[in-house]
Amino acid sequence: MKVTLKEWNAVATWHWDMPEDEVCGICRVQFDGTCPTCKFPGDECALLIGKCGHSFHMHCLMTWIRQDSSKGLCPMCRQKFEWVQEE
């Protein structure tokens, strides 16, 4: 029996390389989901990982940092927030 493929539809998924139970420290949404600002997961909303080890959606952290009360500190541990630069 010979089978000829006439059409093929691919389906793909993606996820951040983070533990599944890891959530944004600000909006409390899993990283594979969307932050409150985005419509779709990964919508130019990268993950920012601080040197302190806490992770946030980029939009959530930028909103936090813009507040005067944040004083540039991590919302979780209150250390000066500096993110890890990936090479």
From TrEMBL:
Entry's localization field: Nucleus
Occurrences of domain RING-type (ranges): 35-78
GO cellular component: anaphase-promoting complex
GO-annotated molecular function: cullin family protein binding; ubiquitin protein ligase activity; zinc ion binding
Keyword rRNA processing appears in the UniProt entry: no
Signal peptide start-end: none
Pfam families: zf-ANAPC11
Record-level GO BP terms: anaphase-promoting complex-dependent catabolic process; cell division
InterPro entries linked: RING-box_E3_Ubiquitin_Ligase, RING-H2_APC11, Znf_RING, Znf_RING/FYVE/PHD
Family designation: Belongs to the RING-box family.
PANTHER family: RING BOX
Protein name in the entry: Anaphase-promoting complex subunit 11
